[in-house]
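Marked as duplicate of an earlier ticket. Keeping the data here for the record.
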Amino acid sequence: QVQLVESGGGLVQPGGSLRLSCVASGSISSIDNMGWYRQAPGKQRELVATETDDGSTNYRASVKGRFTISRDGAKNSVYLQMNSLKPEDTAVYYCNAGFGGFVVAWGQGTQVTVSS
C-alpha cells in the first residue's frame, strides 16, 4: 500500500504564492506517476497537474504558466508551486499517486483559500 501526506495549504491573498508538498511512503515501487487534483465546494474533483517518473508533465489549462509541479530524485515526493493565485484556485487540493491509468492512493487533502 501507498500512503500520502500533504502539507502547505493555507490562506493567501490574490496574486500570492503557496507551495504544496506531498510525501509518499509504503510500496513506492508500485507507482509511476504523482500529481495534484483539487475540489471546490459543489464541484467535481479536477486534475491540476501530474508528473510521470520519466518527467513528463500535464497541466490543466487554467493553471499553465502559474503552477509548477516537480518531484524529488527519489520519486517519493511531489510538489506544487502555485504563483499568481486567483480566488478561483480556492479548493481542497489532493495529492495523487498512480500506476499507468490507475489510482493507487489519495492524500487526505489540504485547503487552499485565495481571498483578500
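See parent ticket for discussion. The chain is about 0% helix and 55% strand.
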